[in-house]
Amino acid sequence: MSAEARTATPIVLLHGLLGERRDWDALIARLDGLRCLALDLPGHGDNRRLHVRSFDEARRWLCGELERRGIRRYRLLGYSLGGRLALHHASHRPAGLEALMLESAHPGLPEQQRPARLAHDDAWAERFEEEPLESVLTDWYRQPVFADLDESTRTRQVARRLGNHGPAVAAMLRATSLGRQPALGAWLAGTGLPVWYLSGSRDAKFHGIGSELARRCRRLRHLSLPGGHDLHLDRPDDVAEAVRAWCRDGAGDP
Predict the structure, then answer these.
(1) Cβ within 8 Å of residue 148, ≥6 positions away
(2) What is the pLDDT of residues 155-206, one digit of tens each?
(3) Helix and strand totals (H; E) in the chain
(4) DSSP H helical segments within 194-235, as ranges?
(5) What is the torsional sign of CA 174, 176, 179, 182?
(6) Nearest to residue 42, comparing CAs of 56, 24, 58?
(7) SS3 of 16, please?
(8) For the whole model, what pTM was predicted?
(9) Exposure winner among 189, 195, 235, 238, fewest CB in 10 A?
(10) C-alpha span between 86 and 63 (Å, rounded)
(11) Cβ atoms 252, 219 nearer than 8 A
């Protein structure tokens, strides 16, 4: 690690459901000179035996990880579930957080839509608990949000995720269902924290979310990049360029 990287404000990276910290390797390799810390979320990777029961427990876990590593000032980048956890963390105004980047992350549902989402996620959780993982993953990656994947890419993605433990994934899915997430669009509209939002031009749902957030939120910058939902895996060069620009952006008061 260079002297520049050792003294830079670290970037803490949170992967999505079914992922692991190594998902960020291709991006980190393109961020020479920047200090990066990718974490395994509870229920994933080396933390597969660690379970949380709520967004607040996940926030306390993240605070503990930062404290254990002596990180007092940091930037936070989260993808999908990791982005939702990063957003929840940021909304509690942690003193050391300088900036937030969200990749393909949902800001939260209106209250009337949450019961249906809870039922949807519970049905998937039951499958992760009870069925062969390969079968569940094959169907998981056929959801509309992954519509940009061709068959060979989908097959590779399923193979990449076979190291997961189904019941651990199920526990995390239930604890951090979008149906349990606080709606934080209003917080994003009012925060003074610099927030960047990345979406893929072929990911219609999250491109639309990013465009709407940019319209409503005074400090949020929306970047649409070529690609689908998993930009940091599919377009690491483009995401690295965005991250470097984000790191040049000024810090603000959350």
Answers:
(1) 200, 202, 203, 227, 228, 229
(2) 999 999 999 999 999 999 999 999 999 999 999 999 999 999 999 999 999 9
(3) 12, 6
(4) 204-216, 231-234
(5) positive
(6) 58
(7) coil
(8) 0.94
(9) 189
(10) 11
(11) yes
